[in-house]
Design a protein that fits this description.
single chain; 139 residues; mainly alpha; 4 helices
Length: 139
């Protein structure tokens, strides 16, 4: 892929240099356009620029296809490498996990604080007499 990308890049550079040569030097342009031999200088230059633009469009399309193909292959390769890295991280975590869980089980905090969920569950089980019900009674 690298060789194809370099080849297309060289082709684009050669095309740009030739197009610059034809645009900057009218004598070169008229002599190359005269190779068609239709007899009229205007028709020769018109067909020359038409062919030059068609070649430019083809070279541009080829460059875009090669660049997109290269970037998609690179993204795929990076994705594979990220997957391998994550797999190795998971294996490393799994090998260190039993030792970490054993130390965490033996160490318990001196003071345990209730969580918000535990406090809400305790409040639901036994309502306080000072707290009025959420909805007033209807008569």
């Amino acid at each position: 892929m690298f060789a194809l990308k370099r080849l297309v890049t060289v082709a684009v550079m050669v095309y740009l240099l030739l197009a610059l040569l034809f645009f900057l030097f009218p004598a070169v342009r008229s002599s190359v356009a005269g190779l068609n031999g239709s007899g009229s200088a205007v028709d020769d230059e018109r067909s020359f620029f038409y062919v030059l633009s068609i070649i430019g469009a083809v070279v541009l399309a080829l460059e875009l296809v090669v660049e997109n193909l290269d970037s998609s292959l690179l993204r795929r390769e990076v994705g594979k490498q990220d997957g391998k890295i994550n797999e190795l991280k998971a294996k490393l975590y799994d090998t260190h996990q039993p030792a970490a869980s054993a130390t965490a089980a033996t160490h318990s905090p001196a003071v345990s604080y209730p969580t918000a969920a535990a406090a809400a569950a305790a409040a639901e089980r036994e309502p306080h007499p000072t707290n009025p019900p959420a909805t007033p009674t209807t008569y």
